Amino acid sequence: MESSTSRPQTDIDRIAERWVDTLVELQPVLGTYIGRTEVNDRYGDLSPEGHEAQIIATSSVLAELARTEAVDEIDEVTKTDLGNELRLTLASSDARLQLRDLNVIDSPSQHIREVFDLMPTDTPDDWSMVARRLSAVEEAIDGYIVTLREGMRHGITPARRQVAEVLTQVRANSGPGSFFAEFASEATVKEGELPTSLKADLDRGATTASEAYSKLAQFLENELAPVAAHDDAVGREIYALQSRRFLGATVDLDESYEWGIEELGRMVREQEAIAEEITPGASVHEAIEFLDRDQSRKLHGTDALREWMQATSDRAVAELGASHFDIPAEIRTLECMIAPTHEGGIYYTGPTDDFSRPGRMWWSVPEGVTEFDTWRELTTVYHEGVPGHHLQIGQAVHNRAKLNTWRRQLAGTSGHAEGWALYAERLMEELGYLDDPADRLGMLDGQRMRAARVVLDIGVHLQKPRLDGTGVWNAEYALEFMRQNVNMDDAFIRFEVNRYLGWPGQAPSYKIGQRIWQELRDATRAREKEAFSSKEFHRRALDLGGVGLDTLRSTLLKEA
Fold first, then answer.
1. Which of 100, 311, 479, 538 has fewest C-beta within 10 Å?
2. Does the predicted model carry a pTM greater than 0.85?
């Protein structure tokens, strides 16, 4: 699929475009994420009535899609993938997952706050939108509480562990020293000053938002926590549904579990071999301790971290764009940012459709952390930037001539995106960017963690027998298992394990997605033999935009 030749819009494209407009109206936070600034002053209805409106709209567009014929291969992909996503939305609603939608990383309690990170703040008009959305936080929180209360009425609640952890997060957004208060107090514009009346509106909005989070904290502590589920495991039925959602593919969960154990063993053996290269006779732990003492591989302070991220990213874009990938001019800009939060995550946000807001790599640095090891994080820059998420997502946004807005901005799954990013890490090793054994050890540290997550996530939620034969997987065993398989601060490990417990199916999608990407490249190479070109394979795959992994497989193998 070349992006240089314009393609006439089809009936299926028009359905997809209208669906984007519907989603933006129903979910303004999603609109902000893709750069639809007209909805930046509000939230969607998070109450049961709002969910019902979403389901009615989903059923309607699914029926319309079923009545419409595809006219070409691009249409076929859109119809297949959009249809799959809509059906999964309905299946999730039938399972009443919305009634227990609370976890430590990806639920309304985070979305309501995090959207402010993406809002423009250059002009008084921008800040006026911010003020109105701050004032709308209360209504959003109220609707969310009503939904969770509905879950309580039906005995459908999140796990107690998730409630306790989210309560801590919510309290940080309450009171005079909250994010909202600081955000409003630091409001500035590029030129001139904010009007006094607007500053007052921001202060009032910040107070309203902080008080709304205080209300949410009281609800979580006094109402939800006492009745929350004791068991972290969600069981096979819900897990299978969530796995399909995150992969866009149906996989054999039991086979994936066994494969995860084998893959973890392979990662350990690779690490052990590289540890020997770094310090002859050293264990992996000893090699890591050796590298952690190496001052030449350290960065001091977040300014140095951001500058190093930016320089590393810029170099990768320039060099890979000259040799191994076709990188359009619009996506050669990637901004490396220090996030305003302190939760420890590293993540990517895509560009707006017109590239007025570029793709951004964010690092949420925990409080008190001031030193960073480049050997650990080099592969992270490739994962989040180029050839990882930024190339993948930016390429889809760039491909306006062929892909509708849904395909460019909203389609895809975690398995497709994160699987590609892990595949990209290994690709950088193949291309010689990780020739330093220390950098390879850093890459493998992350790959080992992702393999361990396959085992842990499926193990806990399907209550598999423990690897040591002492019972079945539970949270305590999961925590010890992760401690044995990652070399990170214990607070980070605890957050990660809590994330897996509350977000079933998401963590394995990285490594399983990487497996599928690698299998597709190998299958294409086997079919094309001497004619195979990795550059052409990557172009063809990325030009599809975000898709489920079943759709990716069927499309690429059909084209091969």
1. 311
2. yes
